[in-house]
Amino acid sequence: MRNMWRWPLAGFMTGGLVGVALLTINIVGTAWGGAGAVRADAAGRMDVLHTPPLLVSAGESTALSYEIVCSPAGEEPAAPCSPSGTLHVRAVGDRTFEDVPLARLADGRFSYSVPASFRGGTGFEYYVTFQDGRGNSATVPAGGADAPERAWIVSKWTTVDLGTHSFGSTRSPDSVLVSSAWGAGPSDLGLNDGREQSRIGPSGFDVAADGAVVLLDQVNHRLARYGNGRVEHFPIEFRGGEGDVAVGNDGTVWVLDDGGSQGHVAVVRGYGAAGQLVGRAGLAAPLGEMLRAGPNGPVVHSYPSEMWLPVATGQAGHTAAQQIAGARPGRPVIGGREVVVRASPEEARLALVAGNRVISAWRVVSQTNLGEVQLAEPNGNGITAIVRLWAEKQAEFRVLQLGQNGLGDSFTVTPAEWAESAPLSRFRVRGGTLYQLRSSPAGAEIVAYRMGGAR
Amino acid sequence: MSKKRIVIGFLPGVVAGLAAVLLMSGVASSRTLTFQAGCNGTWFDANPVSRDTARDYAYGAVYEGYQWGGGCWNYDNIDSAPNDPPQQYTGGEGGDCSGFTFKSWWEKSETGDAGFRYHYALQLVHGPYDANGFKNGDGAPNITLAKSSTVYMDAFASTSHIGMIYYANTAYNEDRMVEAKCESCGTFTWPRTYRGDPSYSAVRRTGW
Known about the structure:
The structure holds 2 protein chains of 2 kinds.
Chain A: H1 2-33, E1 46-49, E2 55-57, E3 63-70, E4 84-91, E5 98-101, E6 103-104, E7 110-113, E8 123-131, E9 137-140, E10 149-154, E11 158-161, E12 175-181, E13 204-207, E14 213-217, E15 222-227, E16 230-235, E17 243-247, E18 253-257, E19 267-271, E20 277-282, E21 287-293, E22 298-303, E23 308-310, E24 312-313, E25 316-317, H2 320-325, E26 331-333, E27 337-343, E28 348-354, E29 357-365, E30 369-379, E31 382-391, E32 394-403, E33 406-413, E34 427-430, E35 433-440, E36 443-450
Chain B: H1 3-25, H2 27-35, E1 43-46, H3 51-61, E2 71-72, E3 94-95, H4 97-104, E4 116-119, H5 131-135, E5 142-145, E6 155-157, E7 162-168, E8 175-182, E9 186-192, E10 201-205
Antiparallel strand pairs in B: 1-4, 2-3, 5-10, 6-7, 6-10, 7-8, 8-9
Helix pairs in contact in B: 3-4
């Protein structure tokens, strides 16, 4: 009997000792990097905040405004950092940039009034460099002179006045393509919900050329592909809380992962038809928002520059240097064109441009509060756009077919945004059909609206 | 005794011993449970405080973690206690959305006092308000206002979440928010559309 238990008992003791050792290593490791060890960068961090004007009316006075944010350099209350900056600006076509020291205003901001000499041609280009007085510096856009920000001068606008919006007359979808309950089961979509946090559902979706709907079910770490009356799931690596998804022209499914709390290192990964990883690129910016399929590969709308970064060509991921060098202020679309959006609470400006030429430009105004531009997709020489119209307790999305003669087809849809998605990834357009990601306490769905004809 | 019999007897014992220790210790949560051991209770009152100062403070927590019910972080630009189980207080790093707002707005735990208080990043404090309390304008320092009247470092709050305006009006007319968003999200700045979302209301910290 004693012999029978000797070896199992010895094993149990050995295993226990190994467990204690592992636990000790774990705790010591945590304490080393835990709260007791403040390892702040002695110089803190600096952030440059700026919204580019992008679309400027001929003769319109324009200012470039910057705000600087400096994180504390340690536990003690920080003395304000003392930022200084230089703007480098030139008219489009000029060879050299003019260096302009930026003056700090009484409110702490930096501002530069763009002189008429830069607003007389097709536009102006610029980038800025800032130092925070603590050893940190930043160039925005990161490409500096090689890939500057730019503004187009618009000589002719087509103005669309939406008047005062009448809430409550939304259009019903023509069809429901996907309808799933919340959960982690084979037919479910994941929900990250709870007290004192965001309520997060699927971040985004896209529609493939064959009509299949691809949903980013990042809460369940998978892609869900709906087509031919069935759903397929593909497990994916996803570290962050939210992201976006776009299906490329070659069928590659690209996923933007914001990286989440483990360093917020945003990554774009490409997946083939069988769900295998086929491409990868680290985003050359602290923050990516929209991921879209461009004519040559996926592009990401990035911050702080608000430039669109080309993250891959085909399935080959780009290096950070390639992304920065290829950054564009407008979103590249087919035909060598770009879609440019610059919206504010007062008006939404949208344009189709080709190089220095503005092909068409629209101003959308309303007596009702204008929210974000949810979607702007080229449609011939027009644009299909969606804007939010909102009041304190109401909101709806207005779908606009913007053409050379003004507003064509237009209708209103309900936001149905019970769960959060990526903010500008609730809609997609493909082949004359508008798709919308909607959510409710019951689950999430993808619905479709046929476009065309006034409603 | 043959080697085979020793192995058959010994190895299951090792596995059983290892499992027993790890299960008893709760190793899965030990990383987070130990994080707050180094937190403190350090604060001091200050006056006045500007929106810029508050935004700088909030930006310091960017890249740090999220902890439901928490309020302590360490400026190392990463969640030092990641992957906590949701909706459980496991002693990890970061504030939750309302705790982060409370500290970033330099508020006091005394709800009738609208004065300013500097909270060390390592100070473990959540404050008396949840997101719904902020949404309702609870407490002396907090008031509600029209969403169209907000400026930076005002906040948008729903019944379950709150985020502060980091920078208003992006090119697509969103607001960049600074917020402690969720466990996997951490604390960061994101462009969001809370302003036009009817489930969110505007709230302001007074006295800037």
